[in-house]
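USER: For my understanding, would you kindly supply a protein sequence with its structure tokens?

ASSISTANT:
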Amino acid sequence: MNLVIVESPAKAKTINGYLGSDYTVLASYGHVRDLPSKDGSVKPDEDFAMSWEVDAKASRRLAEIAEAAKRADRVVLATDPDREGEAISWHVLDVLTKKKALKDKTVQRVTFNAITRSAVQAAMAAPRELDMQLVEAYLARRALDYLVGFTLSPVLWRKLPGARSAGRVQSVALRIVVDREMEIERFKPQEYWSIEADVTADSPPFVARLVKHAGKRVQRLDVKDEAAASAARAAIQSGAFTIRSIEKKPVRRNPAPPFTTSTLQQEAARKLGFTAQRAMQAAQKLYEGVDGTGGLITYMRTDGVQVSPEGIAQAREVIKDRFGPAYVPAEARHYKTKAKNAQEAHEAIRPTNIARHPDSLRLEGDLQRLYELIWKRMVASQMEAARLDRTVVEVESADGQTGLRATGQVVAFDGFMAVYEEGRDEKPKDGDDDEDDDGARLPALKEGAIAAVRDVRADQHFTEPPPRYSEATLVKKLEELGIGRPSTYASILTTLRDREYVRMDKNRFYPEDKGRLVTAFLEQFFARWVEYDFTAALETRLDEVSAGDLDWKALLREFWTDFHAATQAAGELRTTAILDALNESLGPHIFPQKEDGSDPRECPLCHQGQLSLKTSRFGAFIGCSRYPECKFTRPVASPDAVEGSADGGDRELGVDPVTGQPVHLKIGRFGPYVETAGDGDKPKRSSLPKGWSPAGLDLERALRLLSLPREVGMHPEDGKPISAGLGRYGPFILHAGTYANVSDIEEVFDIGLNRAVTLLAEKRAGGARGRGAATTPLKDLGVHPETGDPVHVMAGRFGPYVKSGKVNATLPKGTAPEEMTLEAALPLLAARAAAAPKGKAKAAPKKAAARKAPAKKAAKKPAVKAKAAD
């Protein structure tokens, strides 16, 4: 018997069908070991020895794999063909060796770039040894990330309360976002005017723009004010024009190469609105296969743009059949990547069978849309170039002092554009002389023809700052700088959001104040380790490890020597010295110059103290140096929005149109809140819900908060009121003493009676099993293949979870219930089931201790342990 070990159960099921009865395919459910989340898991003083711990969720699965290995004649490690896949195989092999399950067994490693019958069978026929160079590259990265996190984060916690943690790559990605925000804040808009004219020359009218005035060339920013614009407009209106020249130039546009991990994430963000994490989750499912289809795409973690000869031949055949011979280039297109790392050998991301058109598949929403994107990109990459005729028309006055230009283009042959065009990132108009309206169609014109000006428009504009990063542009920037690797981008961006260092607004990254503070702290005291060049150079060194050109422990020693010294020095700094440095660093942001020239750090309440950064257990804020005599505080936000009021409030948001009372945003002991005058002497207040930034709060949203609790209606059964509000544990609805949590704060403001009654019924029906439980599934995922029990997604008080039989497993943070599938639910349920006995074992002493009334001290110990285990 042959035992094959892969990562996921979906992959195991598909591969088992390809290999037949002589093979048993088991899943490890991803990584089986990790470094314990405590100090000392990597020991620099012991030549970077690493202490691995088997995940409690994986222990039962490993036991099953070990038993199967003892019965097998051959063990085949068939995890993913990249660094992480190699690491999983190494971990499984090491655990099985320690369990003495591999005695006299043949152990082999195989990889395949696609989960298809031919690819799997070809891989099984060509096994190899475990690639220890890739494993060592994994070990080096894991050790570096651990050492940075567990050495630097405690310094942050002590010196900058409210900060979450720091990471080797995440902190640099955060700096990119913060640097862009500071660039936007420093930006000074520049006025300019555009001059356009509607012109005819025995033809329909066309638009031409001013390119020459008073004999001088005019670029975009050259007309700086209304006076200059009026003079140019008058010159056009009074001039006599002819068409001086018509230049037609053929242009060829070649298609973009097929997707890499990075370009897939970028295009999925631009065209589909997917986050990097959402795109990779969908790609993983397409790679593993859906409902017995086999793998639909090749491996999705790759830096390579090359395609196998079979893939190219398939694409050319599809192009010929669907679009005709004219769309097939004479020679196949071959792309080369500039990246030099271990994943370069992988194919680009493409359909495993290009003849399988998206319309022939019936996939769930995200999978269908992403597969179609991948299919179109691959097919377009092998199509003929698009041919365009670009036309430039020069119109000039008789005296040669004034000139206009019209540009346009005509698609002579659409080529690859019949299938796909690459998305473009937003760019500000920065004053260059790029041609406008290249896509406009121009009428038939003749050189020397008299041109009559019908109308002239002078429009005022202002230059715009560079745009904030979207997911697509931030991924692109990380790739350009060589920071991180495409397979890590999704986790990097997710971590920044989870730590609340950034927020997303209209699909753009905005740094939160705590993100700015962390970045400023690192730039002041760990400048080298957040430099773009240093981080990129370290990635290159890690690639050298994977290529076998550098010893991984030598790399760790080199890094640790200087980094450890820097953390030791920062740990000895006094908090006041750190805050002084941050005051200086963030000065332009938190203490901007005032228009009247007065001291920007003067306290606006007492006019005697100096404003400065302060820290508390709830994070940083701005306070007066004369505390406690003066208790002025305000948040660390863009100061344009936070002028202190006479009563010490952070800022006034406006006036309630109903009561005529001012509404303030304030910072209290428990965080930001809004306040206005209430009935009697007691003001009305409401805390800001999670996800609402003080800097972005306006009067309208504040009034919505202050309107809570609101009455939803009367319950149809007993006629008692149902109200909606915001409490300590988040948004809720209340009826007759029963609280039911609402998933989102926005729903509290407009939840209707029917929805409220349903939530209350679910809460009451689930009361016997615990607070917040519900009986109505959010989604039916199917039947568990091992137990036969139905698998449902349920709504719980602390978020959605999957349920099968008596096993409940919480959904990973950020996973939407509607996106959950049976394949994704099974490992969660298995992990939860494996951890259940451990929880029961800890529960027993807790009950026993409670029955012994005299032994109060003894009863406390198990309770503390049980809490820690949770």
Observations:
- Residues 822-851 form the longest helix (30 residues).
